Amino acid sequence: MTEITRATLHDADEVARLFDLYRQFYECEPDYPLAQRFITERLRNDESIVFVARQADQSVGFVQLYPSFCSVEAIRIFILYDLFVDASVRNAGIGRDLMNRASDYCRSEGARRVDLLTAHSNAAGQHLYESLGYEKTNQDFFAYSLAL
């Protein structure tokens, strides 16, 4: 059975282990110290909301959200930036459970929308998101980024 709870500083090391694997999935070099520092700072500063999935006291997945706003619609939104499930337990519904827990949380916080981006090559993620009612919106906007 999978248990999903909101992560605290006590969970930072386990979430960081998964976060490092997540970054490797996106072709980053392994760097646990960086992952641990990043996750610890987000949790310590209350800058993100992280839910962690556990099976038999082992952390097997996480989802990370950032609170934000949509100025045009004048509403509170959340940006779902990270979703990862350990390869050993994929296709067991854990990603779906994490996504549902995240959207339930966002609703409880008065958010009107959850936004996310995914790689064009992430067919499994796209299938999951669309099965949960997410709609592609990238036809109307271009994404830009400025490295600082």
Describe the structure concisely.
This protein is an alpha+beta fold.
Overall geometry: globular
Give the helix/strand class.
Answer: alpha+beta
User: From N to C, what is the helix and strand string?
Assistant: EHHEEEHEH
Spatial sequence of strands, sheet with the most strands: 1-2-3-4-5
β-strand percent reads 25-35%
Oligomer: single chain
- Unreliable segments (pLDDT under 50, ≥5 consecutive)? none
The description of the largest β-sheet is:
5 strands, mixed
Rg (C-alpha, Å): 15 Å
- The number of distinct β-strands equals 5
Distance between the termini: 43 Å
Helix amount: 25-40%
What's the helix count? Answer: 4
Rounded mean pLDDT score: 93
How would you explain this protein's 3D organization?
The mean pLDDT is 93. The protein has a five-stranded mixed sheet with strand order 1-2-3-4-5, sandwiched between helices. The chain is globular. The chain contains four helices and five strands; from the N terminus they run E-H-H-E-E-E-H-E-H. The chain is an alpha+beta fold.
